[in-house]
Write the structure tokens for this entry.
Amino acid sequence: MGKPKGNPMGRFDGKVAIVTGGGGGIGSAVCKRLAEEGAKVAVFDINEDTAHATADSIGAAALGVRADITDLASVRDAVAKSEAELGPIAALINNAGWDVFKPFLQSDPEFWRKIIDVNLIGALNMHFAVLPGMAERGYGRVVNVASDAARVGSSGESVYAACKAGLLGLSKTLAREHSRQGITFNVVCPGPTDTALFAGYAEGAGNPDKLREAMRRAVPMGRIGVPEDLPGTIAYFASDDAAYVTGQVISVSGGLTMSG
């Protein structure tokens, strides 16, 4: 796959990136963008078929890897496999997530645990497995994909919002702890985006078409986001164009939220 016009020298030439949830809508789009700009990409997904499908669509520059991010042993094995086949990890994109619309008082501890395991514990496991190598090499770019729910709240997403808010605090703290080791940590917060995750969330609301239309009307740009809206911002934070940017949070939401 050729590099984008205007980028004769890929920003990621010779660098290896991991993208979790790489088989999904946003994750797949991010993997393809990074590869277009020269990266070798490890496509992590719990669904091995979708991981391989994304990797196959990219070609030799990508490796599909089954990884259960809720299990630290699985994560460590997947990271080791990636480094053995592609090389040392330069960038980590924590993109995987899961949610279902459910008001807090209609939820239960089993539901909380699943949400927390995927959206917070999974990211902790990825950081824990990848950061030692980055620190040793004195270089790393970490981009955590959170949600505007973390910044302003979202009805029916209480536990999900809490986890994503945790990613904001984690990113800012790790940015302080590891800046002098050449590692940056930044956060991208999508607004409503037309993915399988959004479809599942909307189904839980009981009237998905009504919810989708209400969200569309609320967005100043007049549309729900699509996966292709995210890779540019994520790639910026993952690149050396953002070498002096760390601990920052940006929304990609069509103006739905405008947090200062």
